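Complex record, two chains
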Amino acid sequence: MRRLLPSAPVTSLRVTYHLEVEAAEAPARAAEVALEQTVEVPRSAVTDPMIEGEVMGRVESLEADPAGGFRAVIAYPLETTALDPAQLLNVVFGNSSLHADCRCVDLEAPIELLDAMGGPRFGIEGIRKAAGIYDRPLTCTAIKPMGLSTPALADLCETFARGGIDVIKDDHGLADQQWSRLEERIPACLAACERAADATGHRALYVPNLIGSPERVLRALRFAEACGARAVMVSPMLLGLPFFWELCQRH
Amino acid sequence: MRRLLPSAPVTSLRVTYHLEVEAAEAPARAAEVALEQTVEVPRSAVTDPMIEGEVMGRVESLEADPAGGFRAVIAYPLETTALDPAQLLNVVFGNSSLHADCRCVDLEAPIELLDAMGGPRFGIEGIRKAAGIYDRPLTCTAIKPMGLSTPALADLCETFARGGIDVIKDDHGLADQQWSRLEERIPACLAACERAADATGHRALYVPNLIGSPERVLRALRFAEACGARAVMVSPMLLGLPFFWELCQRH
């Protein structure tokens, strides 16, 4: 089933790496990265024209970087990523991240990859809808520090809400610590916003911070929804991009 | 419910940061990191003795680094991590990772944290058991490159198995790409090892690479188990450490 020529133009993901190498080594180093991130075998071992044309990374350009070293643009066939967020990290960073002389500095994604990864699930319109504010800039603040008890954090929340803040989020350091358990904090802060709304007519949006392994985050998400939370926050690089992607796609 | 003094000795996580700063700035910079990774408010705003004693990071030592700059050891109360893998990353790297002059270089975990995070689920004994080899060093190789069809990869697998290799794993770049779908590759490579075992009496251990978002990896794991796979591999930094931790703990 070997095809002698690529059957169709291959869609590519273009990644720019800064290579901290001398001019004499630059072309070979760029070619090495292109191989290592895809086929990961010596160039001489790639004898199949299909693999050469439709699988292997290809150095598209190589130029001196004004800051020193070189910039190499490498095109990876899109199918190497399997359109999956974890495998995308693998192709872009995989083995190259082990080498101190190679650093990813840019990425140009084809539309097929952008479609598969998706963007913000709700965007600013979704935040405005959850906050119920459409006609002016939104104000936002965070409750902190970790170590405060749930009643103290809820008091802060009520103070901010009465002061007219639109969006009040947990500090990113507020997790499920003994000082303020998530399952106490969410209902307490939502109630604090309701009390402020009863007094002022302005209903602030409380945004709990969900952090943990996937099971913990999904359990906390269900709990927050059941309590009536209209928004939650998560930190993509702490949860891991693949789980973050799944959260945005499915929940 | 405010306590005036810490009620019990606080167990700490000790993290060493390299600070690329001048001697005159080093003490203030180290103190700033300790604050930012925990309470994330100005020092003057921490007036509660409990928060000062049991929540706030504390600079334990600060010394010149022979390589230039300084090394600061900061003790974080263990409870700041909530014994959760995502929150652990938050406390160690969180905001400090945004600053080019600060780099985490070491970490000393108390036994309570090590117990909560766990270590290898099966270890070398588990690999020996899955491979059925106890009395000599194990041999291992990988099938590659991406782009080969499932039959070609299974052929490689059979060749290696007949040659006496004990553990044959998917290259880390083999995902669920069109060239070799995971649901074809797993049974094909397991069957290849069985054919080799019938011929030689030596049953190699085929280890499929599971990569993707959590749902995809868990689906692939169930499929691999149903096919009779005795081991699988995953890449922690591609899946994200919190999901990797959950996989090791629960599956």
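Note: The first strand of chain A starts at residue 12 and ends at 19.
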